[in-house]
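seq:
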Amino acid sequence: MEHGKVELYHGSGQIVEFPEIRKTKYTKDFSWGFYCTKSYEQAYRWAGRKHGQGIVNVYSYVENEKLNIKKFENMCDEWLDFIAECRIGKVHEFDIVEGPMADDTIWNFVNDFLNHNISRSVFWEYAKFKHPTHQISFHSIRALECLEYERSESVNDDTME
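struct:
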């Protein structure tokens, strides 16, 4: 059964017609990968915050059930442990990981938890009033093949020369 197409967004400083997985100095929530979100606002913020001239890249995504996909429906202990492991550089076998994306405030709590400054129960006490946004990360060439580039939109049109 073919799933419907979902529109995904990637905030960047450039047009990304051909997404790729880059190994960087710092690992992200779900390790190295190409990150997108279902939230246009989130991608808009990513693009605008990190770059003077931001671009929101738009893709259509069709899930391939043959891939190894991990989905976290919400923030839970398994999600927290998974992020903790990715953050210290452990790699995983998933093609695609989908789940909540913590905002900067929750990140401070995650870091406090990772540094053993707060306990797990205190983390959940702090985090329970926060509403994370969505992220989906692609970790293999086969995963990237599920994405089809549609278009790019400039974030700060008013500042363009």
